[in-house]
Amino acid sequence: MEEENCISFPALGEPAPDFEAETTQGPLKLSELKGKSWVVLFSHPADFTPVCTTEFIAFAGIYDQLKALNVQLIGLSVDSISAHLAWVHAIKEKMGVAIPFPIIADLNMKVAKKFGMIHPALNSTAAVRCVFFIDDKGIMRAMIYYPQSNGRFMPEIIRMVKALQTTDKFKVSTPANWQPGDKVVVPPPRTAAEMEKRPTEGYECKDWYLCFKKV
């Protein structure tokens, strides 16, 4: 029983687990996106369910913002391609929203298990709501897990992508409640000499180890 309930999770800072899968837009191999774009991979419990439908509409709403950030959005559930296609069609027909991103069919839960999407205490045959942020080098940078009962907040997904890309571009960190345009945190001094020099470097410092700047 313990082995059956054991969940493996991808690790931050390591290569994201590679996979090949069928999607609503044809075959997809995750590693083929390496060097081309960032990836936001998200899972949902099931097609034709209320909360998931609201989320798919919401994800469609941020698709262009993600695309502008060089992010490929990919959905997944443990349903079939035919179920995905029927659901996408229904969303467009009933709610007037086209779903522009591919949706992975994962009936055998192969991808879901690689990414720790199946949490048996909640449901052994449906994925929880996960979001994985993978950079253009194929490295897992962030993960957010939600229960099946609660939908995600799309502005946080956009914010996280921008925070990670800001960190990479400027070699800085982002503080609590950071929003694009806010000041960022510069790396703390690593030697006594650097600490003594810090007040002269033009940063806004609260203490020797906590300094901010605009980027």
What would your notes on this structure say?
By secondary structure, the chain is an alpha+beta fold. It has 2 domains: about 20-155, Glutaredoxin, CATH 3.40.30; about 170-215, 2-Layer Sandwich (Antioxidant, Horf6, Chain A, domain 2). The protein has 5 helices and 10 strands. The protein has helices at about 50-70, 80-95, 110-115, 155-170, 190-195, and strands at about 20-25, 25-30, 40-45, 70-75, 105, 130-135, 140-145, 185, 205, 210-215. It starts with 19 loop residues before the first strand and ends with a strand.
Helices and strands in order:
Blueprint: E1 20-23, E2 26-29, E3 38-43, H1 50-68, E4 71-77, H2 81-95, E5 103-105, H3 110-114, E6 129-134, E7 140-146, H4 154-170, E8 184-185, H5 192-197, E9 204-207, E10 210-213
Parallel strand pairs: 3-4, 4-5
Antiparallel strand pairs: 1-2, 3-6, 6-7, 8-10, 9-10
Helix pairs in contact: 1-4
Number of DSSP strand runs: 10
Quickly name the level 1 CATH class of the largest domain: Alpha Beta
Overall outline:
elongated
CATH superfamily of the largest domain: Glutaredoxin
What portion of the residues fall into strands of 2 or more residues?
Answer: 15-25%
* Number of separate domains: 2
Which features does this protein show?
215 residues, alpha+beta, Glutaredoxin, Antioxidant, Horf6, Chain A, domain 2, 2 domains, 5-stranded mixed beta sheet, 3-stranded antiparallel beta sheet, 5 helices, elongated
